[in-house]
UniProtKB/TrEMBL annotation:
Residues 521-542 are annotated as: Disordered. GO terms for biological process: cellular response to calcium ion. Transmembrane segments: none annotated. InterPro entries: C2_dom, C2_domain_sf, C2B_Copine, Copine, Copine_C, VWF_A, vWFA_dom_sf. SMART domains: C2 (SM00239), VWA (SM00327). This is Copine 5. Coiled coil: none annotated. Belongs to the copine family. Pfam families: C2, Copine. PROSITE patterns: C2. Residues 1-119, 126-249 form the C2 domain. It comes from the Eukaryota.
Amino acid sequence: MDKGGDMASVSDFDPLAGSIPATKVEITVSLCVLYTQGIETKQWREFGRTEVIDNTLNPDFVRKFILDYFFEEKQNLRFDLYDVDSKSPDLSKHDFLGQAFCTLGEIVGSSGSRLEKPLTGIPGKKCGTLILSAEELGNCRDVTTMQFCANKLDKKDFFGKSDPFMVFYRSNEDGTFTICHKTEVVKNTLNPMWQAFSIPVRALCNGDYDRTIKVEVYDWDRDGSHDFIGEFTTSYRELARGQSQFNVYEVVNPKKKMKKKKYVNSGTVTDLTNTRTLPCFARALLPAGPCDPSLSPPGNPSQSTSLHYMNPYQLNAYAMALKAVGEIIQDYDSDKMFPALGFGAKIPPDGHVSHEFPLNGNPDNPSCSGIEGILEAYHKSLKTVQLYGPTNFAPVVNHVARYATAEQDGSQYFVLLIITDGVISDMAQTKEAIVSAAKLPMSIIIVGVGQAEFDAMVELDGDDIRISSRGKIAERDIVQFVPFRDYIDRTGNHVLSMARLAKDVLAEIPDQFISYMKGRGIKPNPAPPPYTPTGHTLQTQI
């Protein structure tokens, strides 16, 4: 077989329920093997293989693999390509054509969800290029908006009509039902019109459009002993058709039906849904905006007691936190150039105190190339600046807010990473800056290092009480705080503990992103047209 071409692509993947990548490769291989890497063991495990296509220069792979995609985790993938010479399942008996490494986040975060990776693994030989693309399935994190009305429901109240409300249940694998939504009560009517509501599709049917959905209708009673009016069953596929003659459901009370021969129903419910889904995070994110890691004092970095101490044998807490979070979120930035700022230090040449200085020493362009570039700039800055109080957060928050103010059309979203010892000297100003920033396309991650009390950081987080300033409450919760010490593994397994840290601090970013876009009525970019390679192609579903 001719092994001189190149190209592969991955498509159709669901960021929540799983992914179905489709790989197109312009090399005439007959087998592609996908490996995933464990977070804890770092061992590669075979995830699956395509079927074997024999004796063709244009094989078409149809095998599909389901991959769960998690924004907050670094999911390493490896693709090995082979020319199969026999029916043996032993890969060592076949010709190895090359391999490519990437993360699932790299594919999702690439422009147009299309990523090119060179095939390597054979010394001195150009093995070609693997082209990976990703497209989420329609039911990934879709949120549907629905509305219902009813007609001629049974009268349940002695002195009035009825106060109806509906309860929606998702069916489970074991035949039981789980409540997933309850409408508001409409008082004193037999013909209610309930308000439209939004609900994740997965909450209704766990992504299975044909799974049974049960809806019960009740008459509300003040004492909680609500009267059962009747029920009906449907599916999301049926509901998604919206208003039509087929989406008028008879509300049936089974007990009444058994007792009364002439019983027809207890009213009807009509689906008024004009099916609309809100954006899936993965699709809407592109193109992504910059991540702005900002580093705070304290201590003399030449002394081992300092949190900034540069141990030649291991990273300090600041660097570990930056690397853990940054390595994941950098996959969603197109140019991998990150503005990196320090605050709370005397800087050259005159030694004035700054709360917004570039780590790379270039005030005109504070951007660093990738996470390694930020770490390099951080280490160099520790040798040129004198860490000094007070510690003010507001300047760096406002710094990022200025960028975000100019990009409110949904084309970019900004993430500010602050790594700090928890000391803050401008709490009032910082709260005011965060309340203002909550209206902008940005999120703030705070990682607290050291053994200090982090009460101020917890207050900024706003999980229990939404942050406010001057009587104004933040429009959104955009701050996530975690103490670094909670993730120190006593066994010394920093890889696993830092993966947990990154997962926890990044878990809220997708919802914060969606809340901004939804609040501004910004819809996701249309999906890019499918990639059509030239020349001979093979296709595989990854």
